[in-house]
Amino acid sequence: MSGRLENKVAIVTGAGGGIGGAIARSYAAEGAAVVLVDLNEAATREVKNAILEAGGGAAALIGDVSLEETAVRAVEMACREFGGLTTVVASAIYDAPYQPAPELPVGEWKKSIDVNQTGPFLLVKHAVPVLAAGAGDRGGGSIILVASQLAFAPKPGRTWYASQKGAMVSLAKALAVDHAKDGIRANALSPGPTADERFFSQWPSEEEAQANANTLMGRLGEPEEIAAGAVFLASDEASFVTGIELLVDGGYTAV
Ligand SMILES: NC(=O)c1ccc[n+]([C@@H]2O[C@H](COP(=O)([O-])OP(=O)(O)OC[C@H]3O[C@@H](n4cnc5c(N)ncnc54)[C@H](O)[C@@H]3O)[C@@H](O)[C@H]2O)c1
After folding, report:
1. How high does pLDDT run on average in the chain?
2. What per-residue confidence (pLDDT) applies to 1?
3. Who lines ligand 1 at CB under 6 A?
4. Is 33 within the bounds of a domain?
5. Enclosing domain of residue 91
């Protein structure tokens, strides 16, 4: 197999999910070996099997990204199974209730920060030394933090979500500043509304979800269209791209 991510080794969190799964499969199709991290064992196994059946390389780690040991084990797994690490993608998400601040329980606020903000921090904390040490001869390291178009254009009740996704954009910039000298690029990737189970679960029907896409394209994005942005950011085609936020949102934020 040869492709745009030949010789890359990636960790993808939330790899059992709609977007994380599409990113993992697209990475493998482009030649990367992928460590899949997720709490959902069945969904992760499905993605892993699909990659292996297509002739790609994948290993699965069932773990909670809010725990430091999960980040440590994921980095160790990449090195042990695939001989190094070049790329990390933070896509896992804990969904707290969509409520305005006065109604949102403090416990939900804290839990969502643990998974959605501390999780990506722990991943990069443990990945950066390995990316810095070994990714140079494979085109350099790449960190991709999945944010959201709602960081810029929140819908009602998105207090926790918009603020935590905005934090991903700022964290990517801060990592870009600190680690350019280590040959590491860091970027945020902001999907727009995307046709997966998580999005559909917010609407009474898939038809209603599509009708409320609010994109210039008049439809939801497909997970593979979001994954295409993640492939670009991980690839050597993005060798001069760092500290940005790549919006793949069908024009949601254009108006
Ligand atoms: N779907 C959309 O419309 C949309 C739009 C903008 C941004 N996003 C972002 O894209 C990313 C992926 O979203 P998705 O639609 O694929 O969601 P999803 O619910 O399909 O996938 C999320 C995955 O994260 C896993 N997860 C949850 N908590 C975890 C934990 N503590 N440890 C490890 N894994 C955990 C879940 O098991 C699930 O497989 C998220 O960061 C989300 O905010 C999605």
Report:
1. 96
2. 46
3. 13-14, 16-20, 38-40, 43, 64-66, 91-94, 115, 146, 148, 191, 193-194, 196-199
4. yes
5. 9-247
